[in-house]
Amino acid sequence: MLRAALARWLILLALAASALGAAQTTPKVVISTSDGAERTAVRVELSLTPGQRTFGLMYREHLDEDAGMLFIFPAVDQLKFWMKHTEIPLDMIFADPSGVVVGIVANATPYSEKPVGPDAPALYVLEVNGGFCARHGVRAGDRMTFVGFEPHTTQ
Known about the structure:
By secondary structure, the chain is of the alpha+beta class. The chain has one domain (25-147): Jelly Rolls (Sandwich), CATH 2.60.120. It contains three helices and seven strands. A seven-stranded mixed sheet has the order 5-4-6-3-2-1-7. The radius of gyration is 19 Å and the shape is globular. 27% of the residues are buried.
């Protein structure tokens, strides 16, 4: 009887662990055209705090083609980024609070300390490998959709 109860408990524990694993979704950003057709999707690391936003993708030697880092800011601003200590060329995709792409910096130069960004207010910046936007046809007016997370920060 004790053995049967223990077996049932272990089965329930395994089912609960499996359900928790299935419920966890890898954060993604889906980029679609202005008419809603999906262009591409990217797995993202989230950069939510001032420290995370400052460090970004510095010192990385590699970034998978379907990966990136999403910088989430607490308020809309005219954002500028630099590439100090960043070893790989990046495309930077700037989006407004509704996720609409307001500008792109293509193939930002590694190690550059020159601040770059569009002359438009943004709340989000998605960094991906250099040339990503050209390969996938990403352009201003496209829309980012956030999957598996809420894109908010108070820091």
